[in-house]
Amino acid sequence: MIELLGADYSVYVRSARLALEEKGVSYDLTPIDIFAPEGPSSAYQTLHPFGKIPLLKHGDFHLYETPAILRYVDEAFGGPALQPATSKLRARMAQIQSILDAYAYRTLVWDIYVERVVKTREGAPADEVRIASALGPARTVLAALETLFEGDPFLLGDLPSLADCHAAPMLSLFEIAEEGELLLKGTPRLAAWLSLFKSRASFQATAPVPPD
């Protein structure tokens, strides 16, 4: 049995869940809220010394860091392959994942989505300066991803890959913000890909529970 520890609202937890769903692997999601006042338990931090999510348990094997989890899920279980067959496309997949982690996550999710959507939903004002400062970097991220398409309808061609699983949770949150929806119109291939991927059963199955 696979146990995935994390919160359903996390883009990285959803990336791992998407890979598991696309592979057809059964798993249990154990809630871990790293933003709780007391933080994650000491037992959890024994397994994940950085106190982040997700963490995957497979028997006595424990694994953290999302790219590593995604590769393990693809290579350890049957089902459709989520890594391309050629070295060039595997390198492109790793490149896209690196861009997402290094440049997209903070900018698209925290600087724009959280400020525009989450904070205002909770009754707090958005930091307009922070949002405005993030728009240029966001355009750079989207333009880079737009140019790295290796085919249609998915990022790396005819079939979904770990790159799609990694990207979809971040881009789908970004799109909710009015700035994200507008900027995505400037990258039509990326917007079309996101619309398609959001229609997949895996994406529907991993939707987070709406906040109260």
What CATH first level of the largest domain would be assigned?
Answer: Mainly Alpha
User: Into which percent range does the helicity of residues fall?
Assistant: 55-70%
- In CATH, the topology of the largest domain is named Glutathione S-transferase Yfyf (Class Pi), Chain A, domain 2
Order of helices and strands: EHEHEEHHHHHHH
Task: Give a quick rundown of the structure.
By secondary structure, the chain is of the alpha+beta class.
Overview of this protein structure:
The chain contains 9 helices and 4 strands, in the order βαβαββααααααα. The two termini are 31 Å apart. Helices cover 58% and strands 8% of the residues. Strands 2-1-3-4 form a 4-stranded mixed β-sheet, with helices on one face. The chain has helices spanning 11-23, 42-47, 66-76, 87-121, 128-147, 162-176, 178-184, 188-198, 201-205, and strands at residues 2-6, 27-31, 55-58, 61-64. By secondary structure, it is α+β, with helices and mostly antiparallel strands. The chain has 2 domains: 2-76, Glutaredoxin; 87-205, Glutathione S-transferase Yfyf (Class Pi), Chain A, domain 2 (Up-down Bundle), CATH 1.20.1050.10.
